[in-house]
# Entry
Amino acid sequence: VDGGKYVGEWKNGKRHGEGTNTYASGNKYVGQVKDGLKHGFGKYTFADGDVHPSGEWENGQPKE
# Structure
């Protein structure tokens, strides 16, 4: 994950299932991923502690 770290489930060589992405920026995503992208329910926390208001994601983007 671009200078960061991923811990979680994989499928066909891609992040898939439940996992935690910790990015080099200090931001963190904990939740569901599909085909390497945030997809489903998850929490995105910025390095300063703020939390992204969307808890649901679709194809890597917040579902609003």
The mean pLDDT is 94.
